[in-house]
Every structure is written in structure tokens, then in C-alpha cells.
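[agent] plan:
  1. take the single chain provided in the ticket
  2. run structure prediction with default settings
  3. attach C-alpha cells to the ticket
  4. add a short note for the reviewer (M.T.)
[agent] executing step 1
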Amino acid sequence: MNKMSAIIFILNKLDCGPVKTRKLAEELDVSTKSIQRYLREIEIAEFPLWNPAKGTYAFVEGFSLQKILLSDTEAGLLVLLSSFVDSLKNKKINKSFDIFRKRILSENADSPFFVKFQTGPKYEITQKTKLIEKVIKDKEYVTIESVYNKEIKNLKPIKIAYYDGFWYLICLLGNKNKVLKYNIVNIKKLIPEGKCFEHTKDITKILKESINIYFEIDRKTKVQLSVVKKTAKYFKEKQYFPLQKITKENKDGSLILECKIAKEEEILPTIFHWLPYIKVVEPKELDNKVKEILKQY
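[agent] step 2 finished; step 3 output follows
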């Protein structure tokens, strides 16, 4: 394991509670001296560590990476950068970096901003995630088996994506225009097939157009929605539906919206969220579906 990965691993462990140097050494297959060196570098970066017992380290009470809005990878980069800057022995650079570091590590209460992220399983650096990153980078076909699906071969791993608090592996199925999404937690087996592929679709564009994990490559269904005046301003300021556009502003302040979807699941949760201020105009089948679900409820 390289230095960056080791530091990220230790930060992740510290974020979960006290750690023992001997245990860390066993897990990372390095010496306890290496662990102590990594911990010193974390201290140099001014992450608030304390030593409650011999060979045991922890973040001070109340501190966490989530609280300062840093991922474990971002925290690891900060540690390496701190170590590098410290080695330069340049007072001017050290002073500037110290101000920068304090700004990053300041508590949320001292910041004018607060950002609420959806919480879910952390993205952890494991043998599985390292393999996933590698096959994406190498553009190598894979075979995947999940806890819900049998083994599927000839998959093109395209991107790791974060939706609604969960991490997914986005794949294309062979030469077909079909997208498969795997919650990384649920992947039981991932086997590289030893052959490479070329991207045939602009998946990044498709991902940017998506609203949730229910997207597909082709959006063939046009949906028309009406929004009452009371909530119209929100739909003017934010895109709630895929490829959303305002086609008409009525005199009474209400709006007519259009969007394109691949499947109903893409927009049904959002429609229900905005009831009773939104209504499906077209297609009629979708309007009937909404009414039927409400009737059952």
C-alpha cells in the first residue's frame, strides 16, 4: 500500500474512533514505526490527535472529517501537502499554508456556510474499490455478480457515481444501449475479463443530465407538467427533472414544464414530493399512474 492510501486508511479509522498502532501495522502490513511516522504527519497537518493510552490514538472529542466537510481522500491530500510544505523550510510559504490549513480545518460553527449532505455508506479504499477503479481506468471488460443478480459477463465499467447517499458502479452491457448500476456495497464478485473496450457513448453527458440513479441512455418519453404559482419560483431557479425546461408562463403565475425521461421512476418521487402543487398533463398514462398510486395509498 502506498503512503497516500495508508494515510487515508488511518484517517478513516480515526474518524470511526480510537486506533491502536499495533493493530494498524497489522492491517496495513507495515512496521509500527511506519504507523507512528504517518501519525506524526497527520499531527503536522494539525489534525487534532490525542494519545489516551500507550499505543492508542484518537481525534479529540467532537472532531470528525464529516464535521469539517472533508472526505478521507481530501484529508489525506492535506496531510501529504502539509508534510511537503513543512520540508521546504520557507517561512513565507509555511505562514501562507498555515492560514490555508486553519481555514480548511475550522469548525462549521466558525464558517458562514453549512452544507447538508445525504449520508450513507462511506466510499472506502478496499481491494474491491481499488479493482473497480483499475478496470475503469484500463477500460477492461468485467464479470459482476451482486447479492441481487446472478453473474453477468461482458460489462463495460464506466464510472463510479454517487446518488442519494450511495456509491454505484455504472456499467454498459456489451454493445447494447443498456446501463446497469451496481450499488458497490452489494457487489459480491468482480472479475476482470482480460480484454479492453472503447467507449461508444458519451456517458458523462448522460450522467450530467440525470437526476437520480434511475436514468437510462435513451430518454424517449416527453412529459408535460403544470406547476401552480405558489411553487413556480422554485422550478425557475432549480432543475428538478431531467432536461427540464419551462415552455409557458401563464398569466396567473403558473408554469408549464417539459422534460424527457427513460422510465417513470426518474420523476415519480419528485412529483409526489411536490403534491398538491404539481400535476401531470401528458402523457395520460403517467397521470393515471400517479392517481392510481395515490388511490392505493
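[agent] step 4 note for reviewer: The mean pLDDT is 86.
[agent] ticket updated
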